[in-house]
Specification:
155 residues, elongated, 0% strand, 5 helices
């Protein structure tokens, strides 16, 4: 009998997925420019959104570390975190990755980022988030189910 690993069976590390997609968006923008609007109109909203996302991500990461659990999804989860940003979203770090991706897409003024975000979100939902939820339900049972019933998956 194979020993079950104490971690979520995700298909990709989220920062690599978002980062790879954004590098591809920049490459496509370089090969075939596809601007959203005048760069001056998208630069500052993109910077503001990116800074906001990074700030929330720092708070979420510190909240997880303070709870004594691993941030890396390849390592075991040791606690259900329900404080800080986790009061509003079960996945604030993934929400902030999406906000950062959108912010950078605006800052670099490219529709390619918008186009590539759709498959990224599909992969995140099915290949990461749903798999993590199954793992957390197996590991924590009723306490995780109660948390899941009162806090939204995303926003």
């Amino acid at each position: 009998m194979a020993e079950e690993r104490d971690r979520a069976d995700i298909v990709v590390l989220p920062p690599f997925l978002y980062g790879g997609a954004f590098v591809l968006a920049l490459l496509l923008q370089w090969l075939r420019p596809f601007p959203i609007a005048a760069h001056a109109a998208t630069l500052w909203p993109g910077i503001v959104l990116s800074v906001l996302a990074i700030g929330i991500a720092i708070v979420a990461r510190r909240t997880m570390e303070a709870a004594g659990t691993n941030v890396n999804p390849l390592l075991p989860t040791t606690a259900i975190v329900t404080s800080g940003p986790f009061r509003f979203s079960r996945n604030p770090l993934y929400v902030t990755l999406t906000l950062l991706f959108i912010g950078l897409t605006l800052a670099f003024d490219t529709w390619w980022g918008v186009i590539l975000l759709l498959p990224v979100l599909v992969i995140m939902h099915g290949g990461v988030i749903l798999r993590e939820e199954r793992y957390l339900e197996r590991k924590f049972g009723a306490p995780y189910q109660e948390y899941r019933s009162r806090v939204r998956r995303y926003l």
